[in-house]
């Protein structure tokens, strides 16, 4: 399975669990944690909640065996970032419970995800997120970001800040569509549809509804 990246601090989805080098081979707990987080991420983006919960639990258990709460906190932060990627803006309770042991960069990233940054947090963010946060239009900053998950997380954070332009909405929906990730696709199609409805653009509302029904057919 291709490893996803969220542009989290340090080594992103590799979690900077101990080191970012592949030599010597990593301990078994690192391999288990990475594979579990990758599988959980794909399951969440595809809308398979039971699989996501099981795979995340497997990864979290592997991290817990190290006795390092900061590593578990980073995994919880990774999970919360994926929620933001799908416009699920609930509190990041898993990370909050472990925040006292989190690395400063992770704490800054968590505040960014919850739209509660402190002065100086922007400098601690990964480059793509810092650029999106500081740009007049996040779409301009994100259109050349290669990693689709990073793009979706940053787009979700921008929406939460009230800065999701029509261009950003299109970029996020297109990103999710290209990857076949139904959960963020539906979320962004609904954002676009609400905007079209508010503008009285009936044709666009109907076109978006056809796309929504293709992804999640309604009961007849």
Précis, in short:
With 220 residues, the protein is an all-alpha fold. The chain has helices spanning 28-45, 49-64, 69-85, 93-96, 104-113, 121-124, 127-134, 138-142, 148-160, 166-179, 182-198, 202-215. It has one domain.
Key phrases:
globular; 220 residues; mainly alpha; 64% helix
Task: Provide structural commentary.
This protein has 220 residues and is mainly alpha-helical. The chain has one domain. α9 packs antiparallel against α10.
Distance between the termini: 36 Å
Helix content: 55-70%
Shape: globular
The low-confidence runs, each spanning 5 or more residues with pLDDT under 50, are: 9-20
How many domain modules? 1
Mean pLDDT: 90
The total of helices stands at 12
Radius of gyration: 18 Å
Q: Give a quick account of the main beta sheet: strands, pairing sense, barrel closure.
A: none
Percent of residues in beta strands?
Answer: under 5%
Number of strands: 0
Helix/strand class: mainly alpha
Summarize the helix and strand pattern as letters: HHHHHHHHHHHH
Q: How would the blueprint of this fold be written?
A:
Elements: H1 28-45, H2 49-64, H3 69-85, H4 93-96, H5 104-113, H6 121-124, H7 127-134, H8 138-142, H9 148-160, H10 166-179, H11 182-198, H12 202-215
Helix pairs in contact: 1-2, 1-3, 2-3, 3-5, 3-9, 7-9, 9-10, 10-11, 11-12
Protein name: Lipoprotein
Keywords: Signal
Organism: Hydrogenophaga crocea
């Amino acid at each position: 399975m291709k490893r996803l990246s969220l542009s989290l601090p340090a080594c992103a989805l590799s979690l900077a669990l101990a080191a970012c080098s592949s030599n010597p081979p990593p301990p078994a707990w690192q391999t288990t944690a990475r594979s579990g987080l990758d599988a959980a991420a794909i399951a969440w983006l595809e809308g398979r909640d039971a699989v996501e919960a099981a795979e995340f639990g497997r990864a979290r258990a592997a991290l817990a065996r190290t006795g390092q709460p900061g590593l578990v906190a980073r995994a919880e932060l990774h999970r919360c970032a994926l929620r933001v990627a799908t416009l699920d803006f609930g509190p990041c309770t898993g990370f909050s419970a472990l925040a006292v042991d989190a690395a400063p960069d992770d704490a800054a990233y968590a505040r960014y995800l919850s739209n509660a940054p402190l002065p100086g947090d922007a400098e601690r963010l990964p480059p793509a997120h810092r650029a999106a946060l500081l740009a007049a239009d996040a779409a301009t900053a994100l259109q050349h970001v290669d990693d689709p998950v990073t793009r979706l997380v940053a787009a979700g954070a921008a929406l939460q800040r009230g800065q999701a332009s029509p261009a950003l909405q299109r970029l996020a929906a297109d990103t999710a569509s290209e990857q076949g990730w139904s959960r963020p696709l539906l979320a962004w199609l609904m954002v676009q549809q609400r905007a079209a409805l508010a503008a009285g653009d009936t044709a666009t509302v109907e076109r978006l509804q056809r796309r929504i029904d293709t992804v999640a057919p309604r009961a007849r």
